Amino acid sequence: MPKVSVIMPIYNKAARLRFSIESVLQQTFKDFELIMINDGSTDSSHEIALEYKRKDSRIIYFKQRNQGVSVTRNNAIDLARGEYISFLDADDILHPDFLSKMVWKAGGENVCYCGHSYVTEKGRKKARLNFAEGDILEKFLLNTCNPHLNSWLIKKSFLDEYGIRFSPGVSWGEDMIFFSKVLVNDTEVLAVRDYLTEYHIGQPGSLSENSMDKIKKDIEWMEAVKQYIYTRVKDQKRRNEAIAAIDSYRIAGAILYRLDRNSSLLYKEDIKELISNYDDFIRIFNLSNGIRSIKLMLVYLKMRVQLLL
């Protein structure tokens, strides 16, 4: 059995699929399987995946009717034979030493993560990340320690023991729900203090990329996480801190930053209406998250001033 199962869902990613597959095959750590599931792509992703499957016996490939990314990842988890699970989106990249450093650091423990870089047409930038270890649930929810989906290594038996899977039908925030569940159930998380994955971002700044309906979806995934915390975290102090991280910062941040990014594309009347609609969430925001909270408060004040002009 392989040590690691790398899971790659595919949906119309032909443009960058070869780069992603090659980044897995070029790992210095060789004891892995790559599970690719094509979620009903209509481009040439199928032909590319088949080409690589014929070349390397470590590749497992299936094509299914479109079911969404959450179901696709769950199907791959169920197929996985590896001791550990890692995820890679089909347009992103693993550095050659990703698996070797992550497996070495994990050392038989349940959960390990590393840093990631953002890659745009303007270049590469390392994510701001507090490489915390141990119980990092609160830091994850406060966004001070928020590794990308590609940057985790998780023991499969741990996921099975706690019944952790992606939420079917959820296509926005599904990763946040999943990793929040992971961190609720593991308080001995390990970190590789290196930037070993690359998250490739398309054209930022368009209304479709930052559409306002994402606010509602952000609130939905956060409410789902809160419900899980209420039912699974028995320690009252830990439970209260995690819930406060969402209520006092994360929800308000999701609303205000999305409004700010789209302010030039919206009428003043629309912004006023949206702020009014989400006022219950914004009002409970406080300065408990240090400099991030201060920056968020400045965004809120800037928007208020703009509405007065």
UniProtKB/TrEMBL annotation:
Residues 5-130 form the Glycosyltransferase 2-like domain. InterPro entries: Glyco_trans_2-like, Nucleotide-diphossugar_trans. Gene3D superfamilies: Spore Coat Polysaccharide Biosynthesis Protein SpsA, Chain A. Pfam families: Glycos_transf_2. One of its GO terms (molecular function) is hexosyltransferase activity. SUPFAM superfamilies: Nucleotide-diphospho-sugar transferases. Belongs to the glycosyltransferase 2 family. This is Glycosyltransferase 2-like domain-containing protein. It comes from Planococcus halotolerans.
